[in-house]
Write a structure and sequence with these properties.
single chain; alpha/beta; globular
Length: 889
């Protein structure tokens, strides 16, 4: 059976949670998966060889395992006689339902494990069970207690096999590396089976195993001793898939084992590596000196750890204030203090063990060690950051190597910090600071592999930057009034020039047909760069914009970056007041829009340079602000950037498909792609507006959205999307809000009616042929014209509407979905993806699902369920997902 790819590169991949108290299989699985995924490993062991930034270990310290707070793509549980897993399985099922993750239970084959597997896979749709046979091998494999290792250990000890009873006990030999490989295959494979067996169909008796070893070495003797008779609890009693090859040759693997090492020695070595060392007191003649020796570990550990945490807190403050000069030295001192505390804490553990307090001392040691790792990781990042600054400044002798060094340090640091967050062992003030940047850290970690080709430290790159004014909202974020050309050479910023879009559009020599709404309602006979971002999928709009840049100026771009007014406002908020001396203006987050509009838009005419002049002066002022100030608020700037990216005020599209896949998977390109599980009922809703009124009415426009889903008795689904628009403008730069509204629905959706301000509209197909609607004497058809088209697996409807100044408008789209919920199934999953339009500010969203009395509906999200309805209310800040579990009563 071929091992499947772990995940599609287009998907946004969450960490994998591996829980294994004993840690043998869990460690091996974590090592293998960490080559491609981030792993959270919960274990009571402390493996010394897990020096991998992609593996975060969490102690299994209690009777029942604690589920670390995160969103997981897969949860893998190993049950080696661990009652904690079985007794806490309901919490794992609940977590898997919440995360929509695959839950896999793995254990040695027995009657008990088979019955538990059957019960689990029957109660949870996305559950799997992998049952393995008698694992053998070298090293840690000998810790598995089974008949095969029973035979091997006796041979290694004295070349004699003592067979209990008649030697007919059945065994299922399987080599440890093969078990690891096949468990991964079962977890990530596409097989529809629920239970998998990692052993051969035909078992071997202990007698048969003994003969295999005797063939290899005739000097091995066999004796029969009294023993229990075969219980039969390992017979296969549940259906499942045997995933080892039919001709699995375990005999050769047994014969190839090195049997010269004693099994007892192997066990002792492992215990030494994972248990605290015994402490022998060297008694001295004088009692006072003895007492001093006893107290020294406590005093020194407390002193060094206390100073270390104080320095770590100082480092946190220096990062927050932007004082990076002293940061590296502070982190170096912090690391040294924690290393001394770590050394003295070992002696403290020995003493604590002698008086029965080893558990508390061990927790203190773990806390100190975690802090030491953080200090070390941050120190590495601090040193590597200076190399990255040299790359950006053009002072690096080897930009590719310096960039890779930074990325390596960053990934290691991110992994260590994530481990600290999951374990919650640090001071609350430090943890709160880490949690503030949690989303930013996760996103940056996910895209770290794309950073290298993005800045291209080994060559040259050119990016088109679209300045999108979302106060004149367009599908891609806002009207493109200006654009910039960002040039990088081996990672160094060579140039960033700002241009008026009308200068470029004036050079267009060919006709490009505009979208229907642009040509008919703006109106414009030709399409230009300024209107190129009209597609609801930003990557498509970006491709159009890059093509216009080439047609109009001959300039090629490796990628397109869209930024809007909201991002610039947040950036200014992070920096503080910006002085623009050329215009005698002091700009802050509150007056930014109006001051900019007064210099850019008022009395503007196509050949005027006032727009690019003011924007150029503002950009220069921001650059000077950063270069002249002593303490740069890096955390605030980065947080503003990542918040803007998350909320779609900054967007990215690239010609390099490998880079684009990573950004799309993280939702940073506003693509329509949908990678959800096709076996569930996938719903989709997006509202997209395009201001065609040639004004900045969106500065004054507010909106709210309500989505009503009706689940009928036969499982069919009908929907109502209710959009409320409010226009509070009464003067320049506002005006009537003339907008082309599109609703994005799942493919095959059928529009049944549109109601505007309580009046049901007469729907007619839009006249989209310019030869018809531009003909002299053309009269629009009676009723509301509705455009309909398909794009990227979605059905999209569009209408034109006007919201006058000081007025509101309520638009209701009623439609039916093409898919039905199978109410005969014990459990169905309904998933709604909300697609937020780039450039829109946060607005209220309500979800109401009505269902018949014959079914039960639940949701893991905060909701209100009453009178046959599920109500979920939230503020829409970014793309969101809502899931319902629907089951028969």
């Amino acid at each position: 059976m071929k091992r499947p790819a772990l995940f599609a590169s287009e998907e946004k991949t969450n960490p994998v949670l591996v829980v294994d108290k004993n840690g043998i299989l869990g460690v091996e699985i974590a090592k293998e998966l960490s080559k491609e995924l981030l792993i959270i490993l919960v274990t009571s062991q402390n493996p010394k060889d897990l020096n991998d930034s992609n593996i975060i270990t969490v102690p299994y310290r209690k009777k029942f395992p604690v589920i670390p707070d995160n969103v997981y793509s897969h949860i893998i549980l190993f049950d080696e006689d661990d009652k904690g897993i079985e007794e806490s399985i309901s919490s794992f099922i609940k977590k898997a339902e919440k995360d929509n993750s695959v839950l896999t239970y793995s254990s040695g084959v027995s009657e008990k494990s088979q019955k538990f597997s059957e019960k689990l896979t029957g109660s949870f749709k996305k559950a799997k069970a992998v049952l393995y046979g008698d694992i053998f091998g070298e090293g840690s494999a000998m810790r598995f207690q089974n008949p095969v290792n029973f035979v091997i250990s006796q041979i290694a000890k004295d070349r004699k096999i003592r067979i209990p009873g008649e030697g007919l006990t059945q065994t299922y030999p399987v080599y440890l590396p093969d078990v690891v490989r096949e468990i991964i295959s079962a977890v990530f494979g596409a097989s529809k089976e629920k239970v998998f067996f990692v052993f051969s169909k035909h078992p071997k008796s202990i007698m048969s195993l003994s003969h295999i070893f005797q063939k290899k070495d005739p000097t091995i003797t066999v004796d029969f001793i009294k023993g229990k008779k075969e219980t039969g609890d390992r017979n296969i009693i549940v259906p499942g898939e045997y995933i080892l090859p039919e001709d699995y040759d375990f005999e050769k693997k047994l014969k190839d084992l090195d049997l010269t090492s004693d099994e007892t020695e192997r066990e002792t070595v492992f215990q030494k590596e994972n248990s605290p060392k015994s402490f022998k007191f060297n008694f001295v003649p004088y009692l006072l000196f003895f007492v001093f020796l006893l107290l020294l570990p406590v005093l020194s550990t407390s002193l060094f750890a206390g100073l270390g945490f104080l320095q770590l807190n100082n480092a946190r403050n220096e990062v927050g204030s932007g004082n990076l000069k002293n940061l590296e030295g502070t982190l170096g001192n912090t690391q040294a203090l924690f290393e001394m505390a770590t050394n003295t804490s070992r002696a403290l553990e020995y003493e604590a063990k002698a008086v029965g307090l080893w558990g508390k001392a061990s927790e203190l040691s773990y806390k100190i060690e975690t802090a030491r790792k953080i200090a070390h990781a941050l120190s590495e990042v601090s040193q590597a950051s200076s190399k990255l600054q040299n790359v950006f400044g053009g002072n690096s002798k080897n930009p590719p190597d310096d960039t890779l060094a930074f990325l390596s340090s960053f990934k290691n640091s991110a992994g260590v910090i994530k481990e600290a967050q999951l374990n919650g062992v640090l001071d609350k003030s430090i943890m709160d600071k880490l949690n503030d940047y949690d989303a930013m850290l996760n996103s940056a970690y996910g895209l770290s592999d794309s950073f290298y080709p993005l800045i291209n430290p080994g060559g040259k790159s050119t990016y088109l930057v679209l300045f999108q004014n979302n106060m004149e909202l367009r599908p891609g974020g806002g009207f493109i009034g200006s654009y910039g050309i960002l040039s990088l050479d081996r990672g160094k910023l060579m140039d960033f020039s700002i241009h008026d879009v009308y200068d470029a559009d004036g050079q267009l020599k060919v006709h490009v047909e505009p979208p229907y709404a642009i040509r008919r309602y703006l109106p414009s006979v030709h399409l230009y760069l300024r209107d190129s971002n009209f597609n609801v999928d930003f990557t498509e709009s970006a491709s159009t914009a890059a093509n216009f840049l080439f047609l109009e100026t001959g300039q090629k771009a490796d990628g397109v970056i869209g930024v809007d007014v909201s991002f610039v406002k947040e950036l200014i908020s992070a920096l503080g007041e910006i002085n623009v001396p050329e215009y005698n203006e002091k700009i802050n987050e509150h007056n930014f829009f109006k001051v900019t509009e007064s210099h850019v838009e008022k009395n503007f005419f196509p050949s005027s340079t006032q727009k690019k002049d003011f924007l150029g002066a503002l950009f220069t002022a921001i650059k000077n602000n950063l270069s002249e100030r002593k303490n740069i608020p890096y955390p605030q700037i980065l947080k503003a950037l990542f918040t803007a990216i998350e909320e779609k005020h900054v967007l990215f599209a690239f010609s390099d498909n490998n880079i684009q896949k990573s950004f799309s998977a993280n939702g940073w390109s506003s693509r329509l792609d949908d990678y959800r599980d096709s076996s569930q009922i996938n719903d989709f809703l997006g509202i997209n507006e395009a201001n065609l009124g040639v004004n900045k009415a969106n500065f004054f426009v507010g909106r709210s959205l309500r989505y009503e889903l009706n689940i009928k008795d036969d499982g069919s689904l009908s929907s109502s999307a209710i959009l409320n628009l409010r226009n509070d403008s009464n003067a320049w730069p506002g005006g009537d809000y003339k907008t082309y509204v599109r609703i994005i629905t799942p493919q095959g959706s059928s529009l049944t009616s549109i109601i505007i301000d309580g009046q049901t509209q007469k729907i007619t197909s839009a006249i989209t042929d310019p030869l018809i609607y531009e003909k002299k004497g053309f009269k629009p058809p009676a009723g509301l014209e509705v455009e309909k088209y398909e794009e990227n697996g979605k059905t999209i409807y569009g209408i034109l509407t006007i919201v006058p100044q000081g007025k509101s408008k309520k638009i209701v789209f009623n439609y039916t979905l093409s898919r039905k919920i199978s109410l005969k199934s014990p459990l169905s999953i309904y998933s709604l993806k909300l697609f937020k339009q780039p450039g829109t500010e946060n607005y209220p969203f309500d979800f109401i699902a009505s269902y018949p009395p014959s079914v039960t509906v639940s949701s893991s999200q905060k909701s209100e369920i009453v009178n046959g309805k599920v109500v979920i209310s939230k503020t829409l800040t970014a793309d969101e997902s809502i899931e319902l579990n629907i089951s028969r009563k």
